[in-house]
């Protein structure tokens, strides 16, 4: 197995916070890049204040919400509003190949570390700016989280039940999408710089990275004028299609029948009950017209069985089905265990804890994470002395100025 990692030698200054920027930088860090995560105590990254916390005990260094998106990084605690701190930041940008920030547009310019400054310090720098609506335009100043971008994009209107308020994706949806595209864009920019010597300023609007997941609905509106709205778990082409109750407390299985053959397989797996032989259910059109009736019968059948039993029985018959799992279930999932998706590592304060891995396997390559998320400011001296090459006198001046917080 090769010990060479894909991004060995790539240097990243990660000035971002919350989720999109840090997750983007995590991809590079886990696969070999040297990533310096710039943070501050006032305020700390908001994910550091969000659970889950190890043993249920809150603490700046005890959040695994933060930890999962910041593996394989070094932490520098720096006050960017302090003139000396801003000078250290410029020194870090001059060192870096990639500079990531996720502030409201204009903030880095006000701090003296905008793209114009970054390019003067480092002509081939690749700077990535990510925010909700983009760096320009009438909505550029709109700050917020992925919940807000998800609502503006239109996801909330189409998710939920028709007789209830919009339910939306459970998580800050665009936060989970944008890093995948931003990381790929940075990789393309690194390749472009390798070939041409030219840097880039990437303007990644979270709204725009998410919109293509609504392409069918947008195309439908453009072609037919139809506005799609909430339909619960229902599909326009498949029936039955939904989450069905199983025995136990709040246990469910998701079932999606795509073809007549799968419907026949479902019937046989259930023991060919009389209701399932109704001629009205023989075609997809008929099943779509009578979904309420089918859902009632199918729910009665699943509710008498454990979710795992339903999944294994129907999967073996060729019916698309899966248990609706909790995070605790995922830690015990045999498929994820087989693929070593979770990596247990020793964190300085939390001890041995699981970190999520990456959703792929490559023969001969062991994907990260490489080491656990850092304590706040854990690597201050290492970054100042070894990465930025500061002398003892310079470090003393930085400390005396209150730039390290």
Would you kindly provide a written description of the structure presented here, covering whatever features stand out?
By secondary structure, this protein is an alpha/beta fold. It folds into 2 domains: 11-212 and 338-400, Crotonobetainyl-coa:carnitine coa-transferase, domain 1 (Rossmann fold), CATH 3.40.50; 241-324, formyl-coa transferase, domain 3. The protein is 39% helix and 14% strand. It contains 18 helices and 11 strands. The strands form 3 sheets. A 6-stranded parallel sheet has the order 3-2-1-4-5-6, with helices on both faces. Strands 7-8-9 form a 3-stranded antiparallel sheet, with helices on one face. It has a two-stranded antiparallel sheet with strand order 10-11. Helix 2 (64-68) links the parallel strand 2 (34-39) and strand 3 (74-77). Helix 1 packs across helix 8 and helix 6 crosses helix 8 (173-196). The longest helix is centred in the middle third of the chain and has 24 residues, at 173-196. It is elongated and about 85 Å long. The protein starts with 10 loop residues before the first strand and ends in a 5-residue tail after the last helix.
């Amino acid at each position: 197995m090769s010990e060479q990692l894909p991004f060995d030698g790539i240097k990243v200054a990660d000035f971002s916070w919350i989720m999109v920027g840090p997750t983007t930088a995590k991809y590079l860090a886990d696969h070999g890049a040297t990533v310096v995560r710039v943070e501050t105590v006032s305020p700390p990254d908001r994910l550091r204040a969000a659970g889950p916390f190890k043993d249920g005990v809150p603490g700046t260094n005890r959040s695994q919400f933060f930890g999962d998106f910041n593996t394989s990084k070094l932490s520098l605690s720096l006050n960017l509003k302090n003139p000396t701190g801003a000078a250290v930041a410029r020194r870090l940008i001059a060192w870096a190949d990639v500079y990531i920030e996720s502030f409201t547009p204009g903030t880095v310019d006000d701090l003296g570390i905008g793209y114009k400054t970054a390019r003067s310090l480092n002509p081939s720098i690749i700077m990535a700016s990510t925010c909700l609506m983009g760096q320009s335009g009438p909505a550029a100043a709109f700050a917020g989280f992925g919940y807000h971008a998800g609502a503006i994009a239109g996801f909330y209107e189409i998710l939920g039940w028709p007789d209830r308020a919009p339910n939306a994706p459970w998580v800050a949806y665009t936060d989970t999408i944008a890093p995948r595209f931003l990381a790929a864009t940075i990789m393309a920019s690194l390749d472009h710089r390798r070939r041409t010597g030219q840097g880039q300023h990437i303007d990644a609007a979270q709204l725009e990275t998410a919109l293509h997941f609504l392409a069918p609905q947008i195309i439908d509106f453009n072609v037919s004028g139809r506005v799609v709205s909430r339909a619960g778990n229902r599909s326009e082409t498949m029936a039955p299609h939904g989450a069905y109750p199983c025995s136990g407390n709040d246990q469910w299985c998701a079932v999606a029948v795509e073809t007549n053959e799968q419907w026949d397989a479902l019937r046989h797996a259930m023991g060919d009950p009389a209701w399932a032989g109704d001629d009205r259910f023989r075609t997809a059109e008929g099943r779509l017209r009578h979904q309420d009736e089918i859902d009632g019968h199918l729910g009665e059948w699943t509710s008498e069985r454990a979710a795992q039993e339903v999944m294994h029985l129907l999967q073996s018959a060729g019916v698309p089905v899966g248990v609706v799992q909790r995070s605790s279930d995922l830690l015990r999932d045999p498929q994820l265990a087989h693929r070593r998706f979770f990596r247990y590592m020793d964190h300085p304060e939390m001890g041995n804890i699981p970190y999520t891995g990456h959703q792929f396997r490559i023969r001969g390559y062991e994907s990260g994470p490489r080491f656990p998320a850092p304590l706040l400011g854990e690597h201050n001296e290492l970054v100042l002395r070894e990465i930025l090459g500061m002398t003892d006198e310079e470090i003393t001046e930085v400390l005396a100025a209150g730039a390290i917080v």
